[in-house]
């Protein structure tokens, strides 16, 4: 989950892994480690129609989640690193 500065809603103040509760390293509003951001707007055909969900996972918890998948995630090499 993400918290933004009271005075600047665009600047991150805190990022916490929703799974383990650990606060991720942050410097000047930029996360200094691997983080997975999950978000979706649930639509009409779901039981959560109209809800927006979001969460963050640290890299360790993301790897843990992947171990539970029957089919591995699709991985592609990115030529332009962000
Ligand atoms: Zn975690």
Walk me through the topology.
Blueprint: E1 2-4, E2 12-15, E3 26-27, E4 30-31, E5 35-41, E6 52-58, H1 59-66
Antiparallel strand pairs: 1-2, 3-4, 5-6
The structure holds zinc ion.
Walk me through the structure.
The protein has 82 residues and is mostly beta strands. It has one domain (2-66). It is 10% helix and 30% strand. The protein is built from one helix and six strands. It has a two-stranded antiparallel sheet with strand order 1-2. The protein has a two-stranded antiparallel ribbon with strand order 3-4. A hairpin with a 7-residue loop joins strand 1 and strand 2 (12-15). The two termini are 21 Å apart. Zinc ion binds at residues 17, 19-20, 22, 57-58, 60-61.
Compact summary:
The chain has 82 residues and is mainly beta.
- Average pLDDT confidence is 95
What kind of assembly state do the chains in view correspond to?
single chain
Low-confidence stretches: none
* Fraction of residues in H or I helices: under 10%
Distance between the termini: 21 Å
Coarse structural class: mainly beta
Supply the number of structural domains.
1
Percent strand: 25-35%
How does the major sheet shape up? 2 strands, antiparallel
**Molecular shape:** globular
Kindly state the number of beta strands. Answer: 6
Gyration radius (Cα, Å) is 15 Å
Bound molecules: zinc ion
Kindly list the characteristics that best describe this protein.
82 residues; mainly beta; two-stranded antiparallel sheet; 10% helix; globular; binds zinc ion
